[in-house]
Amino acid sequence: MNPKVVQATNFQGTAPMWNDFIHHNTMRPNASRFRAFSPPSVANGNVALITEEDYFNDGEEVLCEEAGTIQSWYIPNLNGAAYRSNNPNLDPDKGAIRPLDMFNPVTEQGQPVGAFCSAHWFDYHSSGILAQGFYQGGTQFIDVRDPRNLKSFGFFRSAATETWDAYWVPQRDSAERSTGRQTNFVYAVDFVQGLTVLKVTNLPRTTLGAAGPTGSPTP
Question: Containing domain of residue 144, as a range?
């Protein structure tokens, strides 16, 4: 009921390339595991994954290579008292959170029809793989296990697509209660196709902060 700012991005949070249009959405996996100044890792809860959506700026964003990215940012500490003392006006570019990497996987896969392919909503799987909508770039799967080196894990894209979001389907028990784990199925929400159901058969067996093994359970 009384939220307070405890940390923010540094000057790069509002700098070109890192934020040409808007930082649209973010997620911090394994947040409960956070320890100040521990090495950057999604397993340590100190990496923020951020969509930089860019489809309207100076006109060049219709080219996929100029469109938005998925980014990783390192959070060294959450010392709110120190942050607010050093930045009483809460200016948006005086924090300690700094970037690690940015990535647009669509540029590796050939230009899609229409070329409107900015990054958008995503969901994190405990194996360390993101499922993310990239508009006409389709559903992209991104390996974030090394936050300094984001890379493509796979993708699904058809001739006519505008993927808005992607969700990992939760695993449920026989009573339909969530187990806190995820399956290897994805719901992709698409303005053109509607709902697409995808199955990922080769997820990494390693788990980063998961409650248990992910494997390939039946949803």
Answer: 11-199
